[in-house]
Amino acid sequence: MRISRQASLKKFNTFNVSENADVIYEVEDIGMLKNIVSDNNQILILGGGSNILFTKSYNGAIINLRNKGIKVLEEDKESVLVDVCSGENWNDFVLWAIKNNYGGIENLSLIPGNVGAAPIQNIGAYGVELKDVFYSASGIMLDSLKDFELKTSECKFSYRNSIFKNELKDKVIITSIKLKLTKGNHNYNIEYKGLKEKLLKSELSLKKISDEVIKIRQSKLPDHKLIGNCGSFFKNPIINLSKLKTIKSDFPDLPSFKIDSNNYKIPAAWLIEKSGFKEKRNKNVGVYKNQPLVIINLGEATGKEILDFANEIKETINNNFNIQLKEEVLVI
Predict the structure, then answer these.
(1) Active site residue ranges
(2) What mean pLDDT is reported for the chain?
């Protein structure tokens, strides 16, 4: 375990924001966690830092989980139950699954961050969400230091949301998750338009889908090592049919995706572009040229500058469309 005091958070967040923390614990052995929790009053759990924006220094202890390990627990002819430690890089795990011919997460290739953050956000992309293969999450309750395991039905998953962002926010440490993946006969999902156009006439495989997803993501999203960002900053809003009709009366080109008889998901990227923010820049902050959902750090932007820019986007869209965008990113 490495302990750093009054340490910079720049290498711990993909926005590359320079803020400090009172103390950072880089923990490989989860057996140390209960002692660390007992010794500190204010704690933030941090994985790959790909879904967080620091707008100020953190007056407390940050636990950066680095525990590693992937274990097959059960398998039969059709499926396999895999236990994955929180400190594993998510994309490395996806590639491991594909190499072993385990299906279900190939559409989630190249999503940044670590495994432990995946259920918090219920990560999703290209027609697949984590909840589709999720079995359980295990970890430690911060107040009682008791171990816990929550099954899928207990996690209250919804679009980019879970119990870990609500009732259990800042109350648990997820140390590992279990996923149930397919073997042999895979249910390939290429319903996303970009995938279907490229793969409809191809002989499908896990690797072929993963490779195409990676190509699409690389064409839309900047490498955070070169340009600070957190991927999609905002969630795609869900609106009712009445509001959809109202907006379409002025903007017939508005894309929409039916969720149920009265609710539709619309692209936040479309709203951002229509509101005049395509490639817009303000000092050290801007909108990425290939994907309006991505806010980028153009140099030495502070977290406060990035948040102010995001709030300007939110305010403009609320004024233009009466829609309140919600952040995917955790703002500290």
Answers:
(1) 160, 232, 328
(2) 93
